[in-house]
Amino acid sequence: MKLAWKELKYNWKKYLLVEIIVILMMFMVLFLSGLVKGLGSAVSSGVDNMPAETFIVSEDAEKILTVSSLTSDEFATVRQVYGKKAASIDVQRMYIQKDTDSDKLDIAYFAIDPDDFLNPEVYQGEKLGTDTDAIVLDDDFESQGIQVGDSIVDSASGIQLKVVGFTKDAMYGHISVGYISVKTYTSIMKALNPMYQERVHAAAVQSAPGEKVDGTKAYSKAEIVEAIPGYKAEQMTITMVEWLLVVITALIIGIFFFVINLQKEKEFGVLKAVGTSMGSLVRMILSQVFLIAVSGAVLSAGLVALMSAALPATMPFTLLGSQVALVLAAFVLISILGSLATVIRVASIDPAQIIGGDFQ
Amino acid sequence: MTNTVLNMKDIVKSYRDGEAQRTILNHVNLTVRAGEFVAIVGPSGCGKSTLLNIAGMMLSPDSGEIELCGQTVSALPKKKWTRIRKEMIGFIFQNHQLLPYLKAGEQLSVLLKCDGQKVQELFGELNIEHLIDQYPARMSGGERQRVAIARAFASDANLILADEPTASLDSERGRHAVEMIQMEVHKRNRAAVMVTHDERVLDLADKIYKMEDGKLMES
Questions:
Q1: Touching check for B164 and chain A: CB below 8 Å?
Q2: Mean pLDDT of B169-190
Q3: For domain B36-62+77-218, which architecture applies?
Q4: What are B91-139's pLDDT values in tens digits?
Q5: Looking at CA atoms only, how far is residue B32 from chain A in angstroms?
Q6: pLDDT-derived band of residue A41, with 50, 70 and 90 as boundaries?
Q7: Residues 6 or more apart from B133 whose CB is under 8 A from it?
Q8: pLDDT tens-place string over residues A270-316
Q9: Which residue in A3, A17, A106, A179 has its CB near the most CB atoms, within 10 A?
Q10: How far is Cα B152 from Cα B175, in angstroms, rounded to an integer?
Q11: What span, in angstroms and rounded, lies between the C-alpha atoms of A9 and A3?
């Protein structure tokens, strides 16, 4: 152990280079990890943060809220089964404008009954009330220059909506959410299509699935989130890149150590000749790898935390402690596994070569 | 009655050299007592290094027996050899072979767990106290070899094996290094075997063997 530390200290330039590479690579990995979580919540936070456990959608909806459609009868039956624990939800992608001349902004309307449990908490302004044409917006719109009290226009229908409050973390498929009442929603839809018949997209339920209602299917929140278009594809791709990088970084450490120790064969020969056991040589190599990997992991985590604090709020970046810890632990483990190649190599060094001058 | 430290009996070692079987050591016997400084000379390739490797528990003979301090070590499994090297044998290599990342004192204390007092004492005897806190890279060749000599005597090993200790030194420094070995061997009552082709230092040895064609002869 002492030997390992002295060697690191003496050859610090060499090991510093390795360390810098490790820090940079792990920084990249953690950055991706933050991005994958951030993108995930940009797609799903509107659904994720609903205080519901189960969603009931129509049978043919493929778990997608915007596709699902429950008739009034079906929803009435759902209400009978779950009582007040079930609430209706409509999800509709539309556009709004600050005023009739300005650019269109994407919005996902979440139409709810303001008396139900789905009514979101606001951090500014007031909660959605029963007033018609009121809207509670995701805080993303605040950074677009919209304020509480402003009137915005639904582009398609031209209906004016009054901003009453802002809520946080409400996104659906990369689009910021606006909460409106079912009444407002119906009036928008009627303005677009006079034949519009009142119906709801889906029902959110605060309990586990109960008695099945004909024509509907119940799914857990996680299943609904995963089915949001784009969610799975994004998560899978970035997660794969992330883990690939973890493995590559760990292998790079392994290769560096292999090469560094290749140059030290003579020293290992001497150590063996003067009676250093293979056990302590293994400990020496592993403790060096462990030290480099762990310090690289800690430093890169610190760097990412710093950067996360400096990033603008609109950037989809969320660092999850448990996720970071998992990635770093896996990295340290794979690094140590990778250094076993070095151990095997060192084990094969024959101390007898040191006498007679084979090593010069 | 005298303390025999190393006793090699009837050692045979041969290598396959292409088609032929080349006998490097042909029924060699060697006995070294405590306080005795033995030198082995011979042309290169005569088997000196092989003999030293076998005595140093790094190579096994084809046949024959090795006793170290009365213990038959040649019968022990290879796994135990490392321990024996650590506890019973001190090595002085060609080209010193100090570890570049340890200071002179640490070569003894960290590597061989030698206590500080003994390090001081050894360095004092070899006239290198001022080097204790220096890295090998900053020493001269002669100084390095003296640190290597100190390292060989640092453990309580009874047998000292020296492989061409003068090889990388000029004649004056080489002679000085061998004088140091001789002094420590006599003072600490150790047994030492030195392999060399440097005839000028042979007068310092108590006994000189000549090695030729795998045979060891006293001269």
A1: yes
A2: 91
A3: 3-Layer(aba) Sandwich (3.40)
A4: 998 888 899 999 999 999 888 888 889 999 999 989 899 999 999 999 9
A5: 20
A6: confident
A7: B103, B104, B105
A8: 999 988 999 999 999 999 999 999 999 999 999 999 998 888 777 78
A9: A179
A10: 18
A11: 10
Can you read off the two tokens belonging to residue A310? Answer: 């400096």
User: Phi, psi at residue A116, to the nearest 5°?
Assistant: -85, 170
Residue-wise pLDDT for B46-103, tens only, equals 888 889 999 999 989 999 999 998 888 888 888 889 999 998 999 998 888 899 999 9
Answer yes or no: are the C-beta atoms of A179 and A112 closer than 8 Å. yes
3-state secondary structure B149-165: HHHHHHCCCCEEEEECC
Please report, for chain B, the start and end positions of each structural domain, with discontinuous segments joined by +. Answer: 36-62+77-218
Q: What percent of chain B has a predicted confidence (pLDDT) above 90?
A: 57
Is the pLDDT reported for residue B2 higher than 80? no
In sequence order, which residues have a C-beta less than 8 Å from that of residue A157 and are 6 or more positions away? A187, A188, A191, A192
**Residues of A in Cβ contact (< 8 Å) with B104:** none
Does the distance separating the beta carbons of B58 and A270 come in below 8 Å? no
Counted residue by residue, chain B has a size of 219
What is the interface pTM, i.e. ipTM, of the complex? Answer: 0.90
- Using the beta-carbon criterion (under 8 Å), do B86 and A275 form an inter-chain contact? yes
Asked if A178 and A96 count as a contact pair (C-beta separation under 8 A), the reply is yes
Contact A46, A120 (CB under 8 A): no
Residue of B46, B49, B53 to mutate, interface with A, max A Cβ within 10 Å: B53
Contact A273 B106 (CB under 8 A): no
Chain B residues near residue A266 by CB distance under 8 angstroms: 97
Does residue A359 have a pLDDT over 80?
A: no
CB distance from B156 to chain A under 8 Å? no
Angstrom distance (rounded) from CA A152 to CA A96: 7
How much is the pLDDT for B1?
A: 41
Q: Are strands A216-220 and B159-163 parallel, antiparallel or unpaired?
A: unpaired
Alpha carbon distances (Å) from A319 to A14, A174, A233, A324, B143 = 32, 18, 20, 7, 57
**How many alpha carbons lie under 13 Å from residue B13 in its C-beta half-sphere?**
23
* Inter-chain touch B110–A3, beta carbons under 8 Å: yes
Distance from CA of A289 to the nearest CA of B (A): 18
Encoded amino acid at A255, one letter = I
Question: For residues A157 and A190, what is the distance between their CA atoms, to the nearest angstrom?
Answer: 9
Indicate the SS3 state at residue B132.
coil
How does DSSP classify residue B23? E
Reply yes or no on whether the pLDDT at B16 is more than 90: no
